[in-house]
Design goal:
Elements: H1 2-28, H2 31-37, H3 42-48, H4 52-67, H5 79-89, H6 93-106, H7 114-136, H8 146-166, H9 173-185
Helix pairs in contact: 1-2, 1-4, 1-6, 2-3, 5-9, 6-8, 7-8, 8-9
Amino acid sequence: MVRARSEERRADILRAALEVIAERGYRGATLGSVAERVGLTQQGLLHYYPTKEALLVAVLEERDRWDTSGGRDREGWRLDLLESLVEYNAMRPGIVQTFSALLGESVTDGHPAREFFTERYTQVRANMADVLRLEFGERLPGGLTPERAAPLLTAVMDGLQYQWLLDPASVDMPGAFRDFLRLLSGSGDRG
């Protein structure tokens, strides 16, 4: 019972941290503002997450867990599941905004999420190469290998998120991603 309450409290803290970071950015978010949002003192919050950096990494890991929930692990992705992920992201702008803000901030030297994102992108590119290999074999219709196309696929997914966040009325993120998949496949048969 105590463990369940502790896990529930951790989940509440992560949700609050996502909200605060989305509103203020990582640098503008304080442990005190997160603690206040969940009805804790800052000292109480430190019981669950001993540093702001530990909380940030937990937020990023939780976001990735949400993306791989439903029995899909990263090794089980297919192009149609990537389409579903893009559609899912279009329904949760706050999460996408938080991720994008943290990603943008993480390129600066000394940012606590830099290592997380560097490792994450190494893994994502490898996973995207596997997805492309499963779909197309060792060469895509345009002649690229899955390893050469994987950074492009990743860049399109993340770049569309930024464009959509800035102008959601003009950017159909799921539709644009489907269009990109048609370009990858060299055909017009995808939805």
